[in-house]
Amino acid sequence: MSAKIIHIITGGQRSGKSEYGEEVALSLDDSPTYLATSKYWDAEFRKRIEIHQNRRTNNWTTIEETLHLSKITAVNKVLFVDCITLWITNVMDHFKYDTDLSYHFIVEEWNLLCEKNNIIIAISNEIGLGVIPMEKATRQFVDLQGKVNQYIAKKATKVDFMVSGIPIHTKG
């Protein structure tokens, strides 16, 4: 991996990950690049996306890419990736919930993205802290999310875990 910095921010839903990550990105660059990975799943989800969009000022460059993160052309930039979890959802959907194909695709795409020599700040959810889901597809997703988080965190230079808006520095 040749990324200058890989900073992973993980935590639960609505724990303040994105807000904190955006602050970190802006502290490093007045005009960072925002790599948005989410699809517009439904009207409620569109509102969630709009919250993120409305928080950003015009100095952000936004790239929307739901599958092939390595396609982006940003090089030597501060790249804010929001979020790994939604990207995994898209990949799992694309590969019809084949976790092996999904994992290998994710690792390859992540490694290619990191070769662009950017400072990467990436948001990811920590969803494996609760009970084991009853539904097979949900268990597979939780397992894949955990495996991807581990892979990315091992390669990261810095990892923060968010609790109620407070970053807990766990690596770097």
Entry keywords:
172 residues; 23% strand; alpha/beta; 7 strands; 42% helix; seven-stranded mixed sheet
Describe, in plain words, how this protein is organized in 3D.
The structure is a single chain. With 172 residues, the chain is of the alpha/beta class. Helices cover 42% and strands 23% of the residues. It has helices spanning 17-28, 43-55, 84-94, 99-114, 136-155, and strands spanning 5-11, 33-36, 61-64, 78-82, 119-125, 158-163, 166-171. A seven-stranded mixed sheet has the order 3-2-4-5-1-6-7, sandwiched between helices. The mean pLDDT is 91.
Spatial ordering of strands, largest sheet:
3-2-4-5-1-6-7
Give the N-to-C terminal Cα separation.
16 Å
Q: Could you give the order of the helices and strands?
A: EHEHEEHHEHEE
Instruction: Give the count of helical stretches.
Output: 5
Please count the beta strands (DSSP E, at least 2 residues each).
Answer: 7
Please compute the radius of gyration using only Cα atoms: 15 Å
**Relative helix content:** 40-55%
Uncertain ranges: none
Largest sheet data: 7 strands, mixed
The percentage of residues in β strands lies in 15-25%
Question: Average pLDDT, to the nearest integer?
Answer: 91
Output the structural class: alpha/beta
Shape summary: globular
